[in-house]
Design brief:
The complex is a heterotrimer. Chain A is mostly helical. Chain A is built from 13 helices and four strands. Chain A is globular. Chain A starts with 5 loop residues before the first helix and ends with a helix. In chain B, the strands form four sheets. Chain B has a six-stranded mixed β-sheet, sandwiched between helices. In chain B, a hairpin with a 2-residue loop joins β14 and β15. Chain B is an alpha/beta fold. Helix content of chain C is 70%, strand content 4%. In chain C, α4 crosses α14. The two termini of chain C are 41 Å apart. Classes of the chains: A mainly alpha, B alpha/beta, C mainly alpha. Chains in contact: A-B, A-C, B-C. Chains B and C meet through α11, α12 and α13 of B and α10, α11 and α17 of C.
Chain lengths: 334, 508, 345
C-alpha cells in the first residue's frame, strides 16, 4: 500500500510539515498564539469547510469538479433560516435541508453522466441557480433563534490538558459532526466497493465501465455526496453563524478545492484522501488566523490560499513528470 | 453435437451506425462449452462490433443471443459479466492508479464479516491467482509500475477468474512476447478443459492453428462460415477472409514487388546517431535514404512508434544527434519537423489523427496551413482544390469535401490523413500502422500508394505490426527490441523468418 | 436560389438573429411601439434599443473573448474579477493613489488597466497551457484571488473619480451613437478580421475538437491557448473600463460580479458548442444582445432581478442539453452522426 500512495504521501507529508511550520511561525511571532485553543479553534471555525471539502474530494477523485457547493451551503442556510422563521420545527427543517442537498447532487450528477455535459458547466449553472434562489427567498440575512440551533451553536466541550492557560481549549458540538463525516468518508473510500469504484473511475472511466463497475451509480453518487456534504456544511455553518444569508461564502468552492489539492488530491482524478483534505482545510484555517493576528485586510487570506493552491498544483505536476521519467528509467534499466 | 445445448448462439445479428455504415448484417455465431473458437476477418469485417454487441457495449438493431438456451440482452459490460460473459481487450482496460490486486478484484472484492473490503484476503487471493500465470508481482503496487505485457496478463487473470462461462479474448497477444503467448495458450487450454467457452480474436494465423478448435469468418459485416480448424487449409482461410482467390491476391502483390525492386534509393535524408529518449528509445542509429521505404519492425513497446515520435519532434532527443539532409537539427515540436519536410501519420487515428468535427477539406489543409504559418491563410478555393485533388487521387469515398471526417469509414479517414501530409509535399513520410482497422481493398491501395511515392523519390518510414505488409513494401527492415535497434535485414535477405529471429533475440 | 436559402439558415448566427428580432418585436408589441421609438436630444440618439446596445457593450466584448476560450473546450470565469482589477487600477491612477508620477493621466490609466488585463490573461493561459490545470480551476483561482487583488489595490474602499474624459468611455457619443458601441465594433471587428483572415479560426476549432491531433498536425496548441486567454483577459479589462466609467468609480465588490455566467450564456445562445469545436464570434455577440434584451425585458415586466439569474442558469442547462448528442438519442430525435463514439470516449 505504501508504494501506491507515493504521490499523495509526498504531498501530504509536505502539507503536514507546512502546517507545523506555520503553527510554529505563529507561535514565535505572536503572543498567545501557541495554545490548545488556537489549535482547536481551527476545527471550530472551519468545520463547515472541512465537511464540504470532504464531499468535494469524492467528486475530484472521479476526475470531475463541483463548483456549486458554496451556493448549496448558502441556499441551505437561507432555506433553514426562512423555514424556522415560519415556525417549522428544526427536526423537520434540517432533514429537509439535507434532502435538498441530495436532490441537487442527483440532478447535477445525472445531467453530467447521462447527457455527457461538462461538469463545470452544469455545476456553474447550479451555482448560479442556487444563489439566485437564495435571493428569491430573501435578500436580507435572516437570524436564527431556534433553541436547537442555539444549543448547537453554544454547546461545547471544555478540554483541559493542564493548568496553564495555553493547555485549555474548547470544542463545539458541531465539530463532532465533522469528525463523524471524516470517519465515514475514510471508511467509504477505503473499505467499500463504492469508494474503490470512485478511484477506479478517476483512473480510467472507460476501464471502470469495461470492468463491469456501475459507473453511473458511482459518478452520480459522488456528486450526491458532494452536494449532501455541502448541505450538511450549510447546517453546520448555520450553527456557527446563527443566520441564513444568500451572499454568504461566495467563492468558497475554491477553498474546498484548495483543501483537497493541498491535501494531496489530484485534480486529474484517481488519487486523493479525505484525511488530506481535512489537513488542507486546517492549513487554510491557520492562514486565516495569521492574517487576523497580522491585522491584515481579510482579502489577503483569499490571495494567499489561491497562491498556495497554484504552488501545490505545480508541485504535483513536477512530481508526476518526474515519476514518469523515473518509470521510464526503470523500464530502460530492466 | 446437435443433441446438446450450445453454450452461446447468436443469430441474425444486425447493426448499423448512422445512416449508412452497416457494421453487421444478419451475422450468426455459435460457441460450445469447452471450445476455443477463433473469430476471424480482416479489419472492418465486423469482429469488434460483434463482440461489442455480445458484451453490451453496443446495442444491436436486430437478432437474438442465447446463452445456454436462454435469451439474453446485456445492456452493459456489467450485465454481460453477470450472465457470465467476460472480456479481455487488445488495449489494457484496467485502472493504472489502482493496485494490481485491486484491478483483479474490484467490483467483487472479498469482504470481512462486517461487510468491509478485506484487503489482506484480496492480496492473498491475487498472489495465489497470479501464481497460476507464473507471475510473481508485488500485488500491492500500482498497476502502472508494470509493463504493458504484464498489465495484459493481469487483465487476463481478472477475466478468467470471474465466474465466466464465455471468455472473449480480443487480440490479447499483440503486446505479448512469444513466451508470454505460450503461457497464455496454456491457460486457455486449462480453462477450456474446465468447460469454458473461449472466443479468440486475433490476426496471427499461426496462433489460430495452434490453439483453436473452430473458426468463424466474417467479411464486410456478413457471415462467411464456420469451419473446423483442422479441416481448413490456411490458403483457403485467407481467401475466405479477403473474399478473393489467393492466387489473384498473390499476383497483385507480386506486381507490387516488381515495382519495389525497381526503385533506386538516393542520398541519405535522415540520420539518427545514438539518439535516446528517456523511457522510449536508447542509442538509436538509423539512416533513411531518399526514395526508400524503410520498415520498422518489433513488438509493441519495442520502440517503433517511439522512434517516429522522436523523429517528428513529439518526444525530444535527450542524447544523441539527429541530422536531416546532413544538417543537425533540434526538433522541439511537430511543427519543427514539418518545416523540415517531415510528415507523420500516427497510430491512433481517432485520438491523434482526425479532427472529428471538421470537414474533410479542413482536415486536409491543416498541416499545410500549420506549415505556412498563421498569417498565410490558404484560401477556401485553394483548400477546395487540394481536397478535390486528393479525393480523386486517393479515391476517397465521399459525396464532397464538406463532409465531417468523423462520418467517414476508417479507411477513408486514413486516406484523408494521408492527403493532409501529402499536401505538405514531404521528403519523409512516416506511417505508423497506416492500415490498421482498414478493409483489405483500401489496405492494398495504401500499400501501393506508399510504393509509388517512394518511386517518386519520397522517403517512407513504414511501421506495421503486420509483418507480411512490411515485407511487401520495404527493401530494408530495421528490427527493434527493448527500445533498441536489434538488427536489420536488407534486400534478398528479407523474410519473415529473418525478422522474427531478430525480434526473438537470435541475432544481436 | 434554393441553395442560398439553405446557406442562410445553416449559418450559426441565423437563429440568434431571429431570436433577437423576436424579442424586440415582443417588446415593441408589449409597449405599443414605444420600445422602438428613438428620440434625438442634443444630437444624441436615445431610446430603449440604444440602451440595449450601450448596456450590452461590456457583454458583447466579453462574449467575443469567451467564445474562443469555450471553442477550445476551456472556460474563463475570471472575467468579472479582471474587470474589477482593471477598474481599480484605472481609477486609482486617475485619483493619483497609484503611480502618482503619472499625474492622473487618463490615457496612462487606460493603458495600465489593459496591461493588467493582459497580464491576468497570460497568467490564466500559463496555468492552462503550461501547468495543464483544468481551465475552470485555473480561472477560478483568479476569480477569487483577482477580486482580492482589486481590493488590495483600492485598500478595500470604493473609489470615485472626477474625470470627464474617463466618463466618455461609457457615456460619450460620437455621431449620435454611444461610445461603447464603437469600442465593440472596433474590438470585435479586429478580432473577426484576425480570425477569418488568418488561419487562427481554423486552428482554434481544430484545437477545440482534438488538441492532441492538432499538435500532431503541427499546431502549437499551447501558444494558441495562451493567446486566447490573453485576449479574453484584455477584453475583460476593456469591459471593466466601460463599467467603471459607467459608475464613475471603482467598486471592487460588485464590478463584473456574476457576469461570467452572462458571457457563457451569450456564447451558448450563439450556438457555439460549449464542449469545444466550431464557433462563431458574431453569433456570440448577437447572443450577448439577446441576454441583454432578455434582462431589459424581464425587468420591464416587473420581475425581480433575482429571478433573472435563476432563469439564466436554467437556460444554460437547456441549451447544453439541446447540444448534447446523448439528449437527442434519449429523446428520439434524428441522429445526425455516430454519437456513440463520443459516448465511448
Amino acid at each position: 500500500m505504501k508504494e501506491k500512495l507515493r504521490i499523495k504521501n509526498i504531498s501530504l507529508t509536505m502539507t503536514i510539515v507546512l502546517f507545523l511550520v506555520m503553527f510554529i511561525f505563529g507561535s514565535v511571532r505572536y503572543e498567545h498564539f501557541f495554545s490548545l485553543s488556537t489549535f482547536l479553534n481551527l476545527f471550530n471555525d472551519n468545520a463547515y469547510l472541512m465537511i464540504a471539502g470532504i464531499g468535494i474530494t469524492f467528486v475530484l477523485i472521479t476526475g470531475g469538479i463541483d463548483i456549486s457547493i458554496s451556493s448549496t451551503i448558502a441556499f441551505t442556510g437561507v432555506f433553514m433560516a426562512y423555514s424556522l422563521q415560519r415556525g417549522i420545527p428544526s427536526y423537520v427543517v434540517i432533514p429537509m435541508a439535507l434532502i435538498i442537498g441530495i436532490v441537487v447532487g442527483a440532478v447535477q450528477g445525472s445531467l453530467i453522466h447521462y447527457f455527457r455535459l461538462q461538469p463545470f458547466i452544469v455545476t456553474l449553472a447550479g451555482q448560479f441557480l442556487m444563489r439566485g434562489l437564495c435571493v428569491v427567498i430573501s435578500e436580507a440575512s435572516i437570524p436564527i433563534t431556534d433553541p436547537f440551533f442555539k444549543f448547537m451553536a453554544l454547546g461545547r466541550i471544555q478540554i483541559k490538558l493542564g493548568d496553564s492557560k495555553a493547555l485549555n481549549g474548547k470544542i463545539y458540538y458541531y465539530v463532532l459532526i465533522f469528525v463523524a463525516v471524516l470517519l465515514i468518508g475514510l471508511y467509504v473510500l477505503k473499505k467499500t466497493p463504492f469508494g474503490r469504484a470512485v478511484y477506479a473511475i478517476g483512473g480510467s472511466e472507460q476501464s471502470a465501465e469495461l470492468m463491469g463497475l456501475n459507473v453511473a451509480r458511482t459518478k452520480i453518487g459522488a456528486y450526491i455526496i458532494s452536494s449532501f456534504c455541502a448541505s450538511l456544511a450549510g447546517v453546520v455553518f448555520s450553527f456557527y453563524t446563527l443566520a441564513g444569508y444568500g451572499l454568504q461564502n461566495m467563492g468558497m468552492e475554491l477553498d474546498a478545492i484548495s483543501s483537497a489539492v493541498i491535501g494531496g488530491t489530484l485534480l486529474t482524478g484517481g488519487v486523493g484522501s479525505v484525511f488530506g483534505t481535512a489537513v488542507g482545510a486546517m492549513i487554510q484555517g491557520i492562514i486565516q488566523t495569521i492574517v487576523t493576528y497580522e491585522n491584515l485586510n481579510t482579502w489577503w487570506t483569499k490571495v494567499t490560499i489561491a497562491g498556495l493552491l497554484c504552488f501545490f498544483i505545480v508541485v504535483q505536476r513536477i512530481i508526476a513528470v518526474r515519476a514518469e521519467a523515473m518509470k521510464g528509467k526503470e523500464l530502460a534499466a530492466a | 453435437m446437435s443433441g446438446q445445448t450450445k453454450l452461446l448462439t447468436m443469430e441474425g445479428i444486425s447493426k448499423t451506425f448512422g445512416k449508412a455504415v452497416i457494421a453487421l448484417n444478419n451475422v450468426q455465431f455459435e460457441l460450445e462449452a469447452g471450445e476455443i473458437h477463433a473469430l476471424l476477418g480482416e479489419n472492418g469485417a465486423g469482429k469488434s462490433t460483434l463482440i461489442k454487441v455480445l458484451t453490451g457495449v453496443e446495442e444491436r438493431d436486430e437478432g437474438e443471443i442465447l446463452l445456454e438456451g436462454k435469451k439474453i440482452h446485456p445492456k452493459s459490460t456489467n450485465e454481460a459479466q453477470q450472465v457470465g460473459i467476460s472480456t479481455v481487450y487488445q488495449e489494457v482496460n484496467l485502472c493504472p492508479n489502482l493496485s494490481v490486486a485491486e484491478n483483479i478484484y474490484i467490483g467483487r472484492a472479498p469482504k470481512t464479516k462486517m461487510g468491509a473490503i478485506d484487503w489482506a484476503a484480496m492480496s492473498r487471493d491475487a498472489k495465489e491467482l497470479l501464481k497460476k500465470f507464473d507471475l510473481h508481482l508485488d500485488v500491492s503496487k500500482r498497476l502502472d509500475n508494470y509493463s504493458v505485457a504484464i498489465q495484459q496478463m493481469v487483465a487476463i487473470a481478472r477475466a478468467s477468474d470471474i465466474q465466466a462461462k464465455v471468455l472473449i479474448l480480443d487480440e490479447p497477444t499483440s503486446s505479448l512476447s512469444k513466451v508470454e503467448v505460450d503461457k497464455l495458450f496454456e491457460i486457455m487450454r486449462r480453462l477450456k478443459a474446465e468447460g469454458m467457452g473461449i472466443i479468440f480474436v486475433t490476426h496471427f494465423l499461426d496462433q489460430v492453428y495452434e490453439v483453436t478448435d473452430r473458426i468463424t469468418v466474417l467479411r464486410n459485416g456478413t457471415y462467411v462460415g464456420t469451419y473446423k480448424t483442422a479441416e481448413l487449409p490456411r490458403m483457403e482461410l485467407v481467401s475466405k477472409m479477403i473474399g478473393k482467390d489467393y492466387a489473384v491476391l498473390n499476383q497483385s502483390l507480386k506486381e507490387g514487388q516488381v515495382e519495389k525492386e525497381g526503385t533506386k534509393t538516393g542520398d541519405e535524408l535522415i540520420s539518427m546517431k545514438g539518439v535516446s529518449h528517456q523511457g522510449s528509445i536508447t542509442g538509436m542509429d538509423l539512416s533513411i535514404a531518399k526514395g526508400e521505404v524503410l520498415g520498422l519492425s518489433g513488438l509493441l513497446g519495442s520502440g517503433r512508434s517511439e522512434t517516429a515520435r522522436v523523429l517528428f519532434g513529439i518526444d525530444q532527443v535527450n542524447s544523441g544527434e539527429l541530422y536531416i539532409n546532413g544538417e543537425k537539427v533540434h526538433l522541439k515540436h511537430p511543427i519543427d519537423a514539418i518545416r523540415k519536410d517531415l510528415a507523420f501519420c500516427p497510430e491512433n487515428r481517432k485520438t491523434e489523427g482526425i479532427i472529428g468535427d471538421l470537414s474533410i477539406r479542413d482536415n486536409m489543409a491543416l498541416a499545410l496551413q500549420a506549415k505556412k504559418g498563421l498569417f498565410k491563410k490558404i484560401s477556401k478555393k485553394e483548400a477546395q482544390r487540394i481536397a478535390d485533388e486528393y479525393i480523386e487521387k486517393l479515391e476517397i469515398k465521399t459525396p464532397d469535401a464538406d463532409q465531417l471526417i468523423k462520418n467517414l469509414s476508417g479507411g477513408n479517414q486514413q486516406k484523408v490523413i494521408l492527403a493532409r501530409w501529402l499536401a505538405t509535399n514531404p521528403q519523409l513520410l512516416m506511417l505508423d500502422e497506416p492500415t490498421r482497422g482498414i478493409d483489405i481493398g483500401t489496405k492494398a491501395e495504401i500499400q501501393k500508394i506508399v510504393i509509388d511515392l517512394a518511386a517518386q523519390g519520397m522517403a517512407v518510414l513504414f511501421i506495421s505490426s503486420e509483418l507480411d505488409e512490411e515485407l511487401r513494401c520495404c527493401r530494408r527492415i530495421v528490427v527493434l527490441k527493448d527500445m533498441e535497434k536489434a538488427g536489420e535485414v536488407v534486400g534478398d535477405n528479407i523474410s519473415e523468418g529473418a525478422v522474427m529471429q531478430i525480434m526473438a533475440g537470435g541475432e544481436k | 436560389m434554393k441553395n442560398k436559402q439553405y446557406k442562410i439558415t445553416q449559418n450559426q448566427a441565423f437563429w440568434p438573429v431571429i431570436i433577437f428580432l423576436t424579442i424586440i418585436l415582443f417588446n415593441t408589441v408589449m409597449t405599443r411601439g414605444e420600445f422602438l421609438s428613438i428620440s434625438i436630444v442634443d444630437g444624441h440618439f436615445y431610446g430603449r434599443i440604444i440602451d440595449i446596445f450601450r448596456n450590452g457593450g461590456k457583454l458583447m466584448i466579453l462574449a467575443a473573448g469567451m467564445t474562443m476560450v469555450l471553442a477550445t473546450g476551456g472556460t474563463d470565469i475570471s472575467v468579472g474579477s479582471v474587470m474589477a482589477i482593471s477598474g481599480a487600477i484605472a481609477c486609482s491612477i486617475i485619483r493619483g493613489n497609484l503611480l502618482p508620477g503619472l499625474g492622473g493621466s487618463v490615457a496612462a490609466a487606460i493603458i495600465f488597466a489593459v496591461c493588467a488585463g493582459i497580464l491576468c490573461g497570460l497568467w490564466n493561459g500559463f496555468l492552462v497551457a503550461q501547468i495543464k490545470i483544468q481551465p475552470i480551476v485555473a480561472t477560478m483561482i483568479l476569480l477569487v484571488a483577482g477580486r482580492g487583488i482589486a481590493q488590495l489595490i483600492t485598500s478595500g474602499k470604493i473609489i470615485t473619480i472626477n474625470s470627464d474624459a474617463y466618463y466618455f468611455i461609457n457615456g460619450g457619443y460620437i455621431l449620435g451613437l454611444p461610445f461603447p458601441l464603437y469600442i465593440v465594433l472596433f474590438l470585435v471587428g479586429i478580432l473577426l478580421l484576425f480570425v477569418h483572415r488568418t488561419s487562427f479560426g481554423l486552428f482554434l476549432e481544430s484545437i477545440g475538437c482534438n488538441s492532441l491531433a492538432s499538435k500532431f498536425a503541427g499546431i502549437k496548441v499551447n501558444r494558441y491557448l495562451l493567446a486566447i486567454y490573453t485576449i479574453s483577459g484584455a477584453f475583460a479589462s476593456v469591459a471593466g473600463l466601460i463599467e467603471s466609467a459607467g459608475i464613475k468609480g471603482a467598486d471592487c465588490n460588485n464590478a463584473g460580479l456574476n457576469i461570467e455566467l452572462d458571457a457563457i450564456l451569450a456564447v451558448a445562445i450563439g450556438g457555439t458548442n460549449l464542449m469545444g469545436g466550431r464557433f462563431s464570434i458574431f453569433a456570440s455577440v448577437i447572443g450577448a444582445l439577446i441576454v441583454q434584451s432578455i434582462t431589459t425585458t424581464v425587468l420591464a415586466l416587473g420581475v425581480p432581478a433575482a429571478y433573472i439569474r435563476v432563469l439564466k442558469a436554467l437556460l444554460i442547462i437547456v441549451i447544453c442539453l439541446s447540444q448534447s448528442g446523448k439528449f437527442k438519442v434519449l429523446f428520439g430525435r434524428k441522429l445526425e452522426s455516430k454519437k456513440k463514439e463520443a459516448v465511448v470516449l
